[in-house]
Known about the structure:
By secondary structure, the protein is mainly beta.
Amino acid sequence: MSTAAGKVARVFPCLFATWLTLFSILAPLIAQTTVGTGSIVGISSDPSSAVVSGASVTITNVATGQVIHLTTNSSGSFNSGALTPGNYKTLVSAKGFSSAEVSLTVLVGNTATVNVNLQIGQQNQIIDVQGSAVRVNTEQATVQGVLNADQIDNLPVNGRNFLDLAQLEPGVQIQDGANFSKDGYSSISFGGRFSRTARIEVDGIDVSDEIFGSTTTNIPASGIQEFQLSQSSMDLSTELTTSGAINVTTRSGTNAIHGEAFSLFRDSSLAASLPTPPGLTEPFQRSQYGGRLGGPIVKNKFFYFLDGERTLQHEQAPVLVAAPFQQYSGSFSSPFHEDNLMAKADYQLTHSVRAFYRFSYFQNAFSANGGLGFSVYGGKNVTRTHVAGFDFNTGSFSHSFRFGYFENWAAAPRRNQRY
């Protein structure tokens, strides 16, 4: 028989995060981003460094074909508003000047700067302006680090827990959630401060666990577009925190069909042995496999993205008893499995309006008692997440709306057997 150990619907923290995001992100078009997007700002000038007002600015998303048309104001400046992180081309043109095109990358939670000096010439002549290889954010004072999709794909992260990426920044420590009875989760600490002071957000929605300081759900590492860590002078759209914040944005489909499949395997015969009683060998084996696929439903308009990962781990957890009772040493079976599924749809309503919907399903099952020993009952966690968002500009204002609902369910579904 199965018995339910608990069912927790984390509605109130989610609603609080939604309203906080809803009202705090509504802001004028200054050097400001949101937790789920980035932006481009810049100034156009002539050869004498005088500003050029009324210049036409065209910003194009290389992957999705999204096009935004802007005009520089009386001070020669422009602001794109909220943009999906990715690669962009910015074309600036004005009558009597040659057009200038700049290629750049927009990072999550960051404002990219494009200052263009237009040269006298024919407007239909396009000059390709090379951006600096060293990107220095002169618009924000945040102490932060951002990892893009290529870096995440190539970093050797053991276990594929997405929060392990935070350890690449100084002053960050990761604690295994098993130490406080949350197997399969991680807790993050900035500068030695308690993990409950940190905030963790995915696509603009808070997924922090208010009790343990970990997350309420995990996300597949292969589904991450960008990973941002901020520790001080954080953006106004970041939720209130006294230590630091993790900001993750997930991948989306593009005009080209892209995908991958992977399989990872680890066995105790190829690694250092676990501490075991004399004369015994305790096996350990872990398999991780999955894949992702994204592409267009309607080119330049409607996109899909699917991602899934699965972890199967088999372990004989040793129990060592000190002398003179070492004969009572032994082990118990401690299997673990985890499923991470994600589906996302993006729709470009108009040139300046983007909408998305994401559904995530997370499940893990384990038999160890929070890493403290054998448990009579096996544990199980299930989390279903629904997230919807809208980004658009009206006049001199940029708007980002995020709505989220998730349900976290925990139970003890089966009785363990002793080995």
